[in-house]
Specification:
This protein is an all-alpha fold. About 65% of the residues lie in helices and about 0% in strands. About 40% of the residues are buried.
């Protein structure tokens, strides 16, 4: 076979985890592809990292500049049980530019390595427990913390809940929040419901539950009642319950008429009416899309958008022109 074909076969073998086939193909290439010398060396190191000798693979990757290569070196040294080299390679990953996933795996390798100091192991375990809660590398973090009789703090559990919510794991996020609430003094009812709403919104899958949580925060009473009611309306809109969302935007304006949230709610209600084509839908009750205060350049010239008294789409032109200028 031509050297180019052998190189292609070696690359396919590495991707499928067949180290023997990859090394066999690479050994037959020799010096026939001088322009691909670096690529051949990389494939050979990757093949050795699969089956061994692991230390040789790690030594090759150590000389490369990217964090991903240092991570491959750390994996290879871990497989070779060469713990000092594994910790050093993981440290180089953490010292450079890296992704969250790369940092999580490097910290996990360092946490598992023999000879790691208890202080450093606990530091890595705490970071993984909070920031890698949604990644497989963070699965052992809680076990390590429990083994050292260390309990997560309330702040750590709250941050862990946000990590899980951002990953779309709403139920796990709420579980972490509830666990944190059991530590120390419980939060006020409004604050607790508001945090639930924030997590459910970040999870991007349970907008109706988020709307209920924000509405419960509003009903519990706090200085942020207008914000809670507005957030509830936004969540309803995200859940495609647009008529209910418009009603709730209207409630914000009626309950808190002089607040900034009332102005924002008025605009969002009018925007929904425009997007839904309210002027062409008689079943939408008149008055739901109400007056927008003309404050700021983005709303200048917009007076009223309502099904009542509007005879055609040309009357919505001022609002349509204002929408791109607004930051929602």
């Amino acid at each position: 076979d031509a050297p180019e074909v052998r190189f292609a076969r070696a690359r396919a073998a590495v991707e499928t985890g067949d180290a023997d086939a990859a090394l066999s193909s690479l050994d037959k290439i020799g010096t026939a592809l001088p322009l691909l010398e670096q690529d051949v060396a990389r494939l050979r190191a990757r093949a050795k990292a699969i089956k061994g000798p692991f230390e040789e693979a790690g030594d090759w990757f150590v000389g490369q500049p990217l964090a991903a290569d240092q991570l491959r070196a750390a994996r290879a040294f871990e497989s070779a049980k060469s713990w000092p080299k594994a910790r050093a390679a993981a440290g180089r990953v953490l010292a450079g530019k890296r992704s969250r996933r790369e940092e999580a795996e490097a910290r996990a390798i360092r946490m598992r390595s023999d000879g790691e100091s208890e202080t450093d192991a606990l530091e890595d375990a705490r970071w993984l427990f909070v920031h890698a809660a949604d990644l497989p590398f963070g699965d052992d973090a809680r076990t390590v913390l429990s083994g050292h009789h260390v309990k997560p703090t309330r702040t750590e559990l709250a941050d862990r809940a946000e990590t899980l919510a951002d990953a779309g794991r709403g139920d796990d996020a709420l579980g972490a929040l509830e666990e944190g609430e059991r530590l120390g003094t419980p939060s006020r009812a409004a604050e607790h419901h508001r945090r639930r709403g924030d997590l459910l919104m970040r999870a991007r899958t349970r907008y109706a539950d988020a709307a209920r949580a924000y509405f419960e925060a509003y009903n519990a009473g706090s200085a942020r009642g207008a914000s809670d009611l507005l957030s509830s309306a936004r969540a309803l809109s995200r859940d495609n319950q647009d008529d209910l969302a418009i009603d709730r935007y209207d409630d914000v304006g009626k309950t808190f008429p002089k607040s900034h949230e009332a102005e924002e709610a008025a605009f969002l209600a009018a925007r929904l009416c425009l997007l839904l084509g309210a002027v062409h839908r008689p079943r939408v009750r008149p008055g739901l899309c109400h007056e927008i205060p003309c404050r700021g350049a983005g709303l200048r010239g917009v007076r009223r958008v309502s099904p009542r008294g509007v005879r055609g789409p040309g009357h919505l032109q001022p609002l349509a022109e204002s929408l791109p200028q607004m930051q929602l």
